[in-house]
Amino acid sequence: MTTSLEASPQEASRSGRDPLRDAASYVAITLALAALAAVAIIGSGAQPTLLAFALALPPTLIATALAWREGDGAVRRLFRQLKVRPANPAWYLVLLIPPAAFLVVDVIAVALGEPSAGMFDEVFPAILIVPLVVVLPAFAEEIGWRGYALPRTLTAMSPLRAAIVLGIPWALVHVPLYWPGQMNGGSSVWSMATQIVAYSVILTWIYVGTGGSVLMTGLFHALANGLVPLTNGLDPYVVWDIRGVVFPIVAILIVVLGGFRRVGSSTSTASPQPASRPAAT
Question: What is the pTM of this model?
Answer without folding.
Answer: 0.88
